[in-house]
Design goal:
Structural class: mainly alpha
Number of strands: 0
Shape: globular
Distance between the termini: 31 Å
Strand content: under 5%
Radius of gyration: 23 Å
């Protein structure tokens, strides 16, 4: 599920972690300034991430108490499917946009930045409209939990269009160097705004049901897309203005060249593999909820949604450790300092394993009381899947930074294969156990997929990188750097 890796590097987007400058730059004064800027950006990103997770959890508590288990389950199912369709509609373009727009803007080719942006925007708009139409058609055909009509699909489909646009704009902002603005909306802006609007509705004694909750999300996403679009136009305008001032008088910049033509006509080849990884990562976090929605009643979906909200908080220290340590892993690997890298990996694995074990013990002892206290007695059954999910998180934590290590050290293809294998095995087991044991059986499948991601990542790192991500394993060959 997404807890194991999907949120470890910025909402599932590994490009949220900027590439480290070359060693020669690190030794220069300019490099030192870059390091300080990267550290500041990382701390700002961390603060926004924590604020966003707190707002998301708070929004979940409010909606769970107001809607009740059945309607909250329907809301959670719609949101999960919308997130999945959004990743499909993005076509893997955000990571490509970060890379290509960063290169073009660093060269001062702002007309080409604008042309490439519009090419990406058109493709994702067409894809988001198509996925929205498919979503509405499927919702009209497939029966919902309790074999009734599932409300909110039209709103959810339109929500997916705005979320796709906002996510692409955020990626473009990051590629153009506006890191804080490129992260703000996705990490904390939208969750906090949605929480604030829901709280205002309750204070004004306004009715809040599934359609209203989804409409609030739609309103917030539309505003986020408008604001992000304004920021993007500002950044491009400022860059283009500075470029015109530097250019000699009368030397017009050509709008197109062979390099840009190649990027614009062949970007599918680069973006689609990235999109496949994003889809698998999102599916890893949503297939449990979707399966429960097709197998059980909507009440069970709402209970499971509460368990997922809680496990996101439990996993937050692990995710923060991954975000903070990922640049250091990349730096040590590029330097070829195998001993220091192994020491870092072992320390992180020990720390997050011990913390996950402590949290598991706490949930076993007081978890049921805490769930009932925060979400209400109607969600008491969430305690069992929550404990199992926490056990799965602990198993994943044993392997430390395995997936992040592969992503930071050029093993993206291997990581993609690991996700595909783990996800397939997890879904098959969830289907098998889900029919026999219901919600608890589906959790078993997600535990397996998380464990396999960690275990296979550690095995790949030991075999190809010469380091072990888990504190209890050892590398099998020297590192190849």
């Amino acid at each position: 599920m997404a807890i194991w890796l999907g949120h470890a590097c910025g909402n599932g987007d590994l490009t949220m972690q900027p590439d480290l400058p070359p060693k020669s730059r690190l030794e220069a004064p300019l490099g030192a300034r870059m390091v300080r800027q990267m550290f500041g950006a990382s701390m700002a990103s961390l603060a926004m991430r924590i604020a966003g997770m707190g707002s998301t959890f708070g929004l979940g508590v409010v909606l769970a108490r107001v809607l009740g288990p059945r309607d909250y389950g329907i809301y959670g199912l719609v949101i999960s499917i919308v997130a999945l369709t959004m990743n499909i509609a993005l076509l893997g373009i955000p990571q490509l946009a970060v890379r290509e727009l960063a290169v073009l803007s660093s060269r001062g080719q702002w007309q080409r930045v604008n042309a490439l942006w519009h090419s990406f925007a058109r493709a994702t708009l067409i894809a988001s409209l198509a996925t929205a139409a498919v979503t509405i058609i499927v919702a009209a055909i497939v029966p919902a939990p309790d074999h009734g009509r599932l409300p909110g699909w039209a709103t959810g489909a339109v929500l997916g269009i705005f979320l796709t646009r906002s996510s692409l704009q955020a990626a473009a902002l990051r590629g153009l160097g506006a890191l804080s603005r490129g992260q703000f909306m996705d990490l904390c802006g939208r969750p906090f705004a949605a929480l604030a609007v829901c709280a205002l509705c309750l204070l004004l004694h306004m009715k809040l049901d599934v359609n209203h909750a989804l409409s609030i999300q739609l309103l917030v996403a539309a505003v986020a897309a408008l604001v992000s679009g304004h920021w993007l136009r500002q950044v491009v305008a400022v860059g283009a203005s500075a470029d015109r001032m530097k250019a000699p008088h009368g030397s017009a910049q050509p709008l197109r060249d062979a390099t840009l033509d190649r990027v614009q006509t062949q970007w599918w080849r680069a973006s689609l593999p990235l999109g496949l990884v994003d889809i698998m990562r999102q599916l890893d976090g949503t297939y449990g909820l979707i399966l429960i929605g097709t197998m059980a009643v909507a009440t069970d979906v709402g209970v499971y949604r509460v368990a997922l909200s809680c496990i996101a908080l439990v996993a937050m220290p692990t995710n923060i450790a991954h975000v903070v340590m990922a640049p250091g892993v990349a730096k040590l690997y590029r330097k070829g300092d195998k001993a220091a890298l192994q020491k870092l990996l072992t320390s992180v694995s020990l720390a997050i394993s011990a913390l996950s074990l402590a949290m598991l013990g706490g949930l076993v002892i007081i978890g049921k009381f805490a769930v009932m206290l925060v979400f209400g007695g109607a969600y008491a059954q969430a305690w069992v899947p929550l404990v199992l999910l926490c056990a799965g998180q602990m198993l994943y934590s044993l392997f430390g930074m395995g997936p992040i290590l592969l992503a930071m050290c050029g093993e993206e293809r291997a990581l993609t294969a690991i996700y595909a294998i783990s996800l397939t095995c997890g879904i098959l087991l969830a289907l098998l156990l889900g029919h026999a044991f219901g919600m608890v059986g589906v959790v078993g499948g997600q535990m397996l997929s998380g464990f396999m991601v960690g275990c296979l990542s550690d095995a790949r790192a030991r075999a190809k990188l010469g380091v072990a991500s888990a504190f209890f394993t050892r590398a099998v060959r020297p590192a190849v750097v």
